[in-house]
Design brief:
With 333 residues, the chain is mostly helical. It has one domain: Orthogonal Bundle (ABC transporter involved in vitamin B12 uptake, BtuC), CATH 1.10.3470. Helices cover 72% and strands 0% of the residues. The protein has 15 helices and no strands. Helix 6 runs antiparallel to helix 7 and helix 13 runs parallel beside helix 15 (309-331). The longest helix has 27 residues, at 226-252. The chain is globular, with a radius of gyration of 20 Å.
Length: 333
């Protein structure tokens, strides 16, 4: 790597936003963290059972797959892209895995290796879908929004075709039992987030990722393999979607094409409020974690109030708007 490439790699570290005294709270990337702390304290004071161990365990269980999805989306946003197909990848990997290990007529139902084979197929499907996104964006030069919207429709249709638009049940206990164990899923999530956090902050690839999002043209001139960096970000997002699909499939006991179809707004709210930018080159997984905590707390409150259907979508759509405004305010800093 030449000296100019090294300069770009060293310079492309996670930026520290300088906040103006006015509206400093909105400009801060830690707004989600402080909001979550205040929100949790207020709810715990008004509802005694809110801070109970049982309720906390339930919130933690709901947090894990959403955090993994948001982490994958954070990588793509840092690289200067966006992945709108992530929920379709969740649905596709869910039905692929369930169709492979279904105990009645699964593809590998008569094999003692059905569960590990199915998990492997799910991970390969997720990575393959992510690589497809990366190919369409980097090689065909189609804008990321349009490209991933197209693959979302393609993958969603494929998932419905495989499952015949029905839930695939009768999954083996060798799959559902360990993947419903909070210790197992929590350990997997912590290891994944730790690895991704290390990759972003401590490796050359992480610096290249920020450089591509900040200025792809200048990075390419400096010798950074922009297309390769972006393709790997999409592949990582697909892998994260597959892991989340494993969690959702095990917890529900069935593979469904619409697993996760309602999560796109939650993911966007989490990554944008957490400090990632639609303009690219900005974001940290620690910021994303605090924002995911806020989204989980909010979802729990809305559920307890019985808010669902169109009213729920209106509220979440408004939150996406608020997150976009926060992004614009931060970029003026």
């Amino acid at each position: 790597m030449n000296s100019s490439s090294s300069a770009v790699a060293i310079a492309a570290v996670p930026p520290k936003t300088r906040t103006h005294p006015k509206y400093w709270f909105l400009r801060s990337e830690h707004v989600a963290l402080w909001t979550s702390i205040v929100y949790f304290a207020a709810m715990s004071a008004s509802v005694p059972s809110y801070a109970s161990a049982g309720h906390g365990l339930s919130l933690f269980s709901a947090l894990l797959p959403l955090l993994i999805l948001a982490a994958g989306q954070t990588l793509v946003l840092i690289a200067g892209g966006i992945d709108l197909s992530v929920t379709a990848i969740v649905g596709l990997t869910s039905v692929v895995g369930a169709a492979a290990m279904n105990e009645q007529n699964g593809w590998f139902s008569h094999s003692s290796w059905a569960t590990p084979i199915a998990i492997g197929l799910m991970l390969l499907t997720g990575v393959g879908a992510g690589m497809l996104n990366g190919f369409v964006v980097t090689r065909l030069k189609i804008p990321a929004t349009l490209a991933t919207l197209s693959t979302m429709l393609l993958l969603g249709t494929l998932a419905s075709a495989i499952s015949h638009s029905k839930a695939i049940i009768d999954l083996p206990a060798s799959f559902t039992a360990p993947m419903n164990d909070i210790v197992v899923t929590g350990t997997i999530t912590i290891l994944m987030i730790t690895l991704l956090h290390f990759a972003l902050g401590r490796t050359l690839y992480g610096r290249w990722l920020y450089a591509c999002g900040q200025n792809a043209s200048a990075s390419a001139l400096a010798g950074v393999p922009v297309a390769s960096v972006q393709r790997r970000a999409y592949a990582a997002s697909g892998y994260c979607a597959a892991v989340a699909a494993i969690f959702y499939t095990a917890s529900s006991g069935r593979g469904m094409a619409d697993h996760g179809h309602e999560l796109m707004l939650d993911i966007l709210v989490a990554v944008l409020i957490g400090g990632a930018s639609l303009r690219g080159g900005k974001g940290k997984l620690t910021w994303t974690l605090s924002a995911v905590v806020f989204v989980i707390l909010l979802n729990d409150t809305l559920k307890s109030l019985g808010i669902a259907g169109p009213f729920l979508m209106i509220i979440k759509g408004a939150l996406v708007g608020v997150a976009a405004v926060l992004d614009a305010v931060r970029n003026r800093s």
